[in-house]
Design a protein that fits this description.
The complex is a heterotrimer of chains A (about 325), B (about 500) and C (about 150). Chain A is an alpha/beta fold and about 325 residues long. Chain A has eleven helices and ten strands. The N and C termini of chain A lie far apart (about 70 Å). Chain B has about 500 residues and is mainly alpha-helical. Chain B contains 23 helices and no strands. In chain C, strands 1-2 form a two-stranded antiparallel ribbon. Classes of the chains: A alpha/beta (about 325), B mainly alpha (about 500), C mainly alpha (about 150). Chains in contact: A-B, A-C, B-C. Chains B and C meet through helix 9, helix 11, helix 20, helix 21 and helix 22 of B and strand 1, helix 1, helix 2, helix 3 and helix 4 of C.
């Protein structure tokens, strides 16, 4: 009798579990990809590209969802708070290593299951094409001569490009507040302000400044990376131009909430790798001028931890951390 | 002529035409659903354009966005539920026409003048894009500050009833705009440590709440009885249009110019254009007392303006790759993907492509007329559904729309709070339009002020030091002080 | 149900004072004269002025009754309005648990009940509009509406 009951019970369990979604192979329903920034930005473009490639590979719709606001806090929070079942993932950006230093959130890179880093764009040093500077050194010298006179822009107060500027100045033994920061709603309004004469320096990435550089209105004097960019190989690195070792860039990577099931991770990382290596994604990167950078799972997590510590150190040094 | 022929050959193909039609229909659906904006429609198109040729890809985006901005007027007219923020300025006016049984006339005006506004904006784009982009690029935060203040001055002209209560409503809207982390200081304000509040009050759920939910609550109070007025059919739309066109041509032209001018500026778009146009229309009207009671004059001017602004936004986008609004921000990305890198060189190296883009603009705006008429007929049929059945379904649409803005229930909660707020405000004769305007302009006003002061090291006189800023400043002060002056004059005359 | 202008003015002034108090605690932007406190402070001053004038006017012109019932006088109106608010709140609470379709059918049925719509009309209207919205948004427009008990099967 007991055996019969057991058999019946196990049959019932089988029947039930075959109905429940967990038993079917992952993924068996649509996946949501959360983007902490608005439609139209670079992060949104990368996310939509990756989503459409993932969709083709996984055979399930991958819906891109913009959760904007709070300078990225809200979207990053939504990714971390999602049910860790593999059906909600998101795109992390460099800000995850900055926000907690500013006291805006408790989240940091350890709040996530790292999946894959897909892109990195270093900061550049841009001035108007008709500005009297030939090299980055000239700009620094001028700033040193009259601190406070020149203003810079490119993102919000305490954002990544603000840090790029402050860190660059600090590495060259110039007071970080010698160039006051004019907060803007992203790189495009900052560049617009550069054109209209509101600010003199913009430290956004090269692809963001690209159309104005190509139009001959803006020139880039240095790129804050170890190597020159593929997009503008004539622009020297900051080290070549000034001797400073300072490098910084905005990166983007796919991650899920903490505790993602192994089954999902094992499926997602190869799918992301395939997407990253696809011709479509590589064409997308080169047509937009974005930099590709791949790191999966543990390597991505290690990169984030390293970036977090480095950003924190500089933010404390230049007075942007709490 | 070779260029034009090449451009025509690129556009006049069946696959391009079908794409434009399909994208228009899609834009119409998305634009007509409150909470889903034209920007969202375009973002949803992006993955599809990955697999399309450049011209159909760009064509789909142009047609979709133009149609979505027009389609926002449909629920706004029929249900007092602005489909996109660009319709908010004249929602009450359109709805008042519906209550008088003139829904078809109001929508007919929206169709025709949206299309004409779009065509005007396109003409400007064709004739003088490079020159105007140059001017637009000269606008800095000093100029935007005056522009935002000028926009706020509109509140004086749009509100019906007590101007004092209008001011209270405006300040309330400005306060709502100040909530959250997105301010120049990057400091969380009035968030009480809540992560959702850090993102601030999203404009769209607030707008749905203030307009649509408050209306639903009011009908619930009265038991959602059916209206006694019958909707009159417009009959042959062409005849009505001819008359409107002849009567209101100065309003239309002014709306077109306002819209294009505001649209070209990268910091302002279709929604601000509609507000300014509506306020201007009332200010210069011979019969300002008719505004707010269902009068087509203001509708014509502002519906022309928002569609004209849409084309205007392409000017800095095509010439300098600087987006004029969030729609063109996405389009710029797609242009790069398709190898049509925006910039002055696009005009030199690829003139046939540019002309093809212009051609699509014209076709998309012309296609709006027949498609819009179809939507008009289908839409007004909604009004025949018993209101006891309609009102709950409208509320469900509001709930889903508010959710879809950011895919979170926080949006639904905001919508509910603002619905109650709007209901209470209107009970106390506090107009809601100025509040909505305050939410639209608050961020721009603060940002432009604070960033200007950082640039000028705190010197307030800097707002008058640049020529355009000085001109705009003088204009703004004149507009703000004029009512005061005339009030003083009246008092003196009375004494 | 509305209060008179004098009470309204008092509320506006109270709000303005609260706003000003919180604004005072906001930190400045380092090294800058105008920071995060300027804008809310200006709003507070503006509201204070408006409230003051409104109060002065209603004292001068006679404020009227403290409380007028207006819409609330109609039979059943308070129940219908409050009921609607409760139903939306219920939707916010229940939709993550039950999923979109059940929660929205519940909300619609509640409102139809408040408006005394006959069952023969109410049930199909609620079910059809919920399902239609679900399909359009979740599949057509890719809005991730909450999934719950039955969404996996439809």
């Amino acid at each position: 009798m007991k055996r019969l009951l057991f058999a019946a019970a196990s049959l019932a369990v089988c029947a039930f579990s075959s109905l429940s979604p967990a038993a079917a192979a992952y993924p068996d329903r649509p996946i949501t990809l959360i983007v902490p920034w608005g439609a139209g930005g670079g992060t949104d473009a990368v996310a939509r590209m990756i989503a459409s490639l993932l969709e083709r590979d996984l055979g399930q719709p991958v819906a891109v969802v913009n959760r904007t606001g709070g300078q990225g806090v809200v979207g990053h929070q939504a990714i971390a708070d999602a049910t860790p079942d593999g059906y909600t993932i998101g795109i992390l950006t460099v800000e995850i290593g900055m926000m907690h230093w500013q006291g805006l959130t408790k989240l940091d890179s350890t709040s996530y299951t790292a999946l894959a880093m897909v892109n990195e764009d270093p900061a550049g040093l841009q001035v108007r094409a008709d500005a009297p500077y030939k090299t980055a050194r000239d700009v620094i010298d001028d700033v040193q001569k009259s601190p406070g006179k020149y203003k810079a822009s490119g993102t919000g107060q305490g954002g990544i490009w603000h840090l790029a500027l402050a860190g660059m100045l600090s590495s060259l033994k110039v007071a970080p507040n010698a160039v006051p920061w004019v907060p803007s709603n992203g790189a495009a309004p900052g560049l617009q302000d550069l054109m209209s004469g509101g600010v003199q320096i913009v430290t956004c990435s090269l692809p963001e400044a690209r159309s104005l550089i190509e139009a001959g209105r803006v020139k880039s004097l240095a790129i804050m990376a170890k190597e020159r960019s593929k997009l503008f190989p004539d622009v020297p690195t900051l080290k070549e131009a000034t001797g400073s070792d300072w490098t910084i860039g905005a990166w983007r990577g796919i991650a899920g909430p903490k505790g993602l099931p192994k089954e999902a991770v094992d499926k997602l990382i190869p799918a992301l790798k395939k997407a990253y290596e696809s011709k479509e994604y590589q064409d997308f990167l080169s047509s937009r001028g974005f930099g590709g950078r791949w790191a999966d799972g543990a390597a991505f997590a290690a990169f984030m931890a390293e970036s977090d510590a480095a950003l924190g150190a500089v933010m404390k040094e230049v007075g942007l951390a709490k | 002529m070779g260029t034009f022929e090449a451009a025509a050959a690129m556009v006049l193909r069946w696959d391009v035409m079908i794409t434009i039609l399909a994208a228009s229909a899609f834009g119409m659906v998305v634009g007509a659903i409150p909470g889903l904006t034209a920007t969202m429609a375009i973002a949803l198109l992006v993955p599809i354009t990955f697999f399309m040729d450049p011209i159909p890809a760009v064509g789909a985006m142009i047609a979709c966005s133009a149609m979505a901005i027009f389609a926002g007027d449909i629920p706004s007219t029929l249900l007092r539920m602005p489909g996109t923020p660009a319709s908010a300025a004249y929602t009450d006016e359109c709805y008042a026409m519906t209550r008088k049984g003139q829904a078809e006339t109001a929508l007919g005006a929206n169709v025709l003048f949206s299309a004409l506004g779009g065509l005007f904006g396109t003409a400007v784009l064709i004739v003088s894009a490079p020159l105007l982009a140059e001017i637009a690029l000269g606008f800095s935060s000093f100029e935007y500050f005056w522009l935002a203040l000028l926009g706020l001055a509109c509140a004086i002209f749009i509100g019906t009833g007590s101007p004092l209560k209008g001011m209270i409503s405006l300040f309330l809207g400005l306060f709502v705009a100040s909530i959250g982390l997105d301010n120049p200081g990057g400091i969380p304000r009035f968030t009480f440590g809540n992560a959702e509040l850090m993102s601030g009050i999203d404009f769209i759920p607030a707008m749905i709440g203030l307009f649509a939910v408050s209306e639903v609550l009011r009908s619930m109070a009265t038991g959602a009885k059916d209206w006694e007025v019958k909707q009159t059919s417009i009959g042959n739309p062409l005849r009505g249009w001819g008359k409107m066109f002849v009567t209101w041509w100065p309003q239309q032209i002014r709306g077109n110019i306002t819209g294009t001018a505001i649209g070209i500026l990268p910091g302002a778009g279709a929604d601000i254009a509609a507000w300014v146009a509506y306020a201007m229309s009332r200010k210069f009207s011979k019969t300002p007392e008719k505004f707010g009671t269902g009068h087509v004059e203001g509708i014509i001017e502002s519906t022309s303006a928002n569609n004209a602004a849409l084309a205007g936004a392409w000017v800095p986008a095509l010439v300098f790759g600087i987006p004029g609004d969030s729609i063109t921000a996405i389009v710029i990305g797609v242009l790069y993907l398709k190898g049509l890198n925006p910039g002055p060189t696009l005009f030199l190296n690829n003139p046939q492509t540019i002309y093809a883009v212009f051609g699509i603009f014209i076709i998309a705006n012309l296609a709006m007329i027949p498609l819009g008429l179809l939507a008009l007929k289908a839409g007004t049929a909604l009004l025949r559904v018993p209101r006891r059945v309609m009102m709950p379904v409208i509320l469900l649409f509001c709930v889903v729309g508010a959710y879809a803005v950011n895919n979170s229930l926080y949006g639904v909660l905001l919508m509910l709070v603002f619905g109650v707020l709007g209901f209470i405000m209107e009970e106390h004769d506090v107009p809601i339009a100025p509040c909505v305007l305050g939410i639209v302009l608050g961020k721009m006003l603060e940002e432009s002020f604070v960033t200007s002061m950082i640039k000028a090291d705190g010197n307030l006189l800097a707002f008058f030091e640049r020529p355009i800023a000085a001109g705009l400043g003088a204009l703004t002060l004149a507009v703000l002080l004029m009512p005061l002056w005339s009030a003083l004059g009246r008092r003196r005359a009375a004494a | 149900m509305k209060v008179n202008d004098l009470i309204l003015a008092a509320l506006v002034i109270l709000g303005a004072v609260a706003l000003a108090t919180v604004s005072l605690t906001l930190p400045p932007i380092p090294g800058q004269a105008y920071g995060a406190d300027v804008f809310p402070m200006s709003i507070a001053v503006g509201l204070l002025l408006c409230g003051w004038i409104l109060a002065a006017r209603s004292v001068k012109g006679g404020a009227g009754r403290a409380l007028t019932l207006t819409w609330a006088r109609e039979p059943g109106a308070p129940t219908r309005v409050l009921g609607t608010l409760v139903l939306v709140a219920l939707y916010i609470w229940l939709s993550p648990l039950l999923g979109f379709v059940l929660a929205s059918v519940l909300m619609l049925m509640g409102m139809f009940l408040l408006l005394r719509v006959q069952m023969i009309l109410a049930v199909p209207s609620a079910v059809i509009s919920s399902l239609a919205l679900y399909y359009v948004f979740a599949y057509g427009l890719r809005v991730p509406l909450p999934r719950g008990l039955i969404e996996g099967w439809i």
